[in-house]
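Case study: Transcriptional regulator with XRE-family HTH domain.
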Amino acid sequence: MPTNVNPTVRRRRLGQELRRLREIKGMTAEEVAERLLVSQSKISRLENGRRSISQRDVRDLCGVYEVEDHRIVDSLMQMAKDSRQQGWWHAFGDIPYSVYIGLETDAESLRVYEPQIVPGLLQTRGYAEALINGALPEAPSSDIEKRVNVRARRQDRVNAPEHPLRLWAVIDESALRRLVGGKQVMLEQLEHLVEQSRLPHVTVQVLPFEMGAHPGINGQYAILEFPDAADSSVVYIEGVTSDLYLEKANDVQRYSVMYEHLRAQALNVEQTRHFIGEIAKSYTR
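Here is what the predicted structure looks like once written out:
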């Protein structure tokens, strides 16, 4: 195990290993929960990496699974210890989508479809502030500022001089025409979008209204892929009160095929830049 893996990914890898040990033992999560006098949901959360795993949890589970190799137990215990460290995002306080940030921070590539807004990693500060203010009208200004700062910090992955995040964004035309923050904010946002699209590791495509129905009609989603083969790809679907993470191979494959259809139906890179430029002109009048 490398020493520079972030805590979210550590929890995920540890959960995968604990699930493997349970399956080798031929036990269900319910059976394990009964043995440890805990809820089945706790076992599920430990295995999917959504919950912090203590060294005591690891010790108890290894006992149930009758793991006799002390090197394996020690390795898992160390992973549990490392997984409880804090990532950079914890410095901003309670962030509702911290699990996603942890995955995004470690991802090698990200494919995202956005039907309503410009993707967060490509937003200007003015656009982000206006967008979050509109989405959270009752939130205090301090919370708005925190979210904007977190979004700006996330963008470091895209603009990193070495090993930047490979980003592919398919954006619906409605995101470009929705007036967020006023004409000047939108003009700056669209100009920034074109500028970012010229980076060698960033691809932006627009899906115009005239394409009609398409595979992404049901809403936003993102596919994260990681440099380590031990980390399976993840489909992320953002919700109002909770988020959905899909990791089963069949689910990831289905969303990947959907994304290929979206890319095929969208305007190509040059057409997209011209299309964005034409919309930007409407914000200069």
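For the exam, be able to explain this: Strands lie at 109-114, 166-172, 202-207, 221-225, 234-237, 244-246.
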